[in-house]
Amino acid sequence: MDLPVEPGWLSLVPPLVAIALALLTREVVLSLFSGVWIGAVFAAGFNPLTGTAGSLDFLIEAMTDADHVAIIVFSLFLGGLVGIMSRSGGTRGVVEVLERFATDRTRGQFYTGLSAIFIFFDDYANTLIRGNALRPMTDRLAISREKLAYIVDSTAAPLAVSAVVTTWIGFEITQIRDALSSVAAGTADPELQAQLQAGADNAFTIFLHSIPYLFYPLLALAFVFMVILMRRDFGAMYEAERRSYSGGGVIRPGAMPAADTSLESLKPSSDQPHRWYNAAVPVLAVILVALGALWGTGAAALDPGERTIRDVIGQADPFAALLWASFAGCVVGIAMVVAQRILTVQEALEAWLGGMQSMLLAVVILVLAWGLGGVTQELGTGPYLASLLQDTLPLAALPALVFVVAALTAFSTGTSWGTMAILFPVVIPLAVAMGVGVGFAGGEHYGILLGTVSSVMAGAVFGDHSSPISDTTVLSSMASACDLVDHVRTQLPYAVVVALVALAVGEIPVALGWIHPVVSLMLGLVVLGAVLWFFGRDPAAGLDSAETAPSHARPVHQEAD
Fold first, then answer.
1. Between the chain's N and C termini, which has fewer beta carbons within 10 Å?
2. Is there a domain that residue 366 lies in?
3. Are residues 332 and 291 in the same domain?
4. Helices 105-114 & 123-140 angle (0-180, nearest 10)
5. Can you tell me the distance from the alpha carbon of 457 to that of 216, in angstroms, rounded to the nearest whole number?
6. Which domain holds residue 495?
7. Which residues make beta-bridge pairs with 537?
8. Is residue 552 part of a domain?
9. pTM score above 0.90
């Protein structure tokens, strides 16, 4: 089961089947397994019996990957922590404090988006902590779970990919450096070889220079706040917000949230105190331990003289850091509620296990998404899409084409990191072969190189945002207790609009030399504002005050936490 399929387009069938079925049937578990099964059948030489057995092998492999296991345990521990926080009344205490500031839906959404900067260092931690912690507040303000999932998802990865000190930075710099070193080793021109090696040695500088070219992530981040402050939505998000704002529930009737928050073990007793610090302190412990573990694991891999913040974060082990952080949060949470005699040890453990139980469906979906990613890797989906770049094309079209191919790859495989790992070794040598220079004193077509590098990262984030088989999409749905397909249906139109604007005013004109990237970003904000103004609508328009009272914020079939 190690031979890519021929012709190459067959490698696109499994992810497309999974995505199409998920969008059409809204049965995400069956849809994902269908994609895994079809891919396994292809990989087994179209033998359905061998393929059925092989599909289970893909799932087992997904669960035996050390990083995947760390994410599963981290998610379960964080779910357990949420259970303790909810059962002890801490979550409700946080909601009561936030309600003093988040007095309306706009402020509630704004604070939800702004909270991303406090957990900027990792997208997984960002989505899981913020979604779980802020969901009770947004429920009480009648903000739909779809909008919460969108805000959480569309502020996490864009921030992680563009910030200077994150768990992404080391991976991105390594990919750039290795690609340039590979090209340098294979060229016979001494002058070009020296230039390429200098570029490899200064990969961090190339990354810094490429940040203004990250049109999609930066515009997506800004678009979240534009949607909030302009109070305008469109498409499926408008319908979801209209439903929630009018008292129809923060989730769609019949929806299947990726996390179950209706368990009795998660509900506090009416006579328990609602102390905000019983939720805030454990979450703060998660953040501090994560930062400390990132520093510890990164510093251990470096000599004392090399321990700059950038290098340490680049060498850190984010999966170990998140695992330790979630465990520490659970210990702190249990210790606090037991010490205050709010819960007994047995009750605290029951709440902890109940919180883990609420994450079961999300873990199943996550494993299936990883299994489908293994299928696409086995079939050569990524290399096939990357091979589409090999045809002759104008140099100025390279960044835009790379963005499109990266988006398709991430959409089909469900992984932004995997997309970068696939495309960086392909597109950087291709750009150099087409005449792109890497000189730092204005090397020939240096802007094209920066645009190409940034397009890989930006396209990977866009495809990741748009795909129902993406791990970050699943985690955002899980943390927000939102139906996965509903999250994709509501976020996708926003992501597509931002991507089209990024291409129209960013990737293409900047590569042609018509406009500076900073000016392009400003122009993009204007265009996005115009789109919202002309096509967006206020979900509250035409509803009387009685229909929008906070008491209607509860879901139809599910009590708010």
1. N
2. no
3. yes
4. 170
5. 9
6. 169-217+378-535
7. 233
8. no
9. no
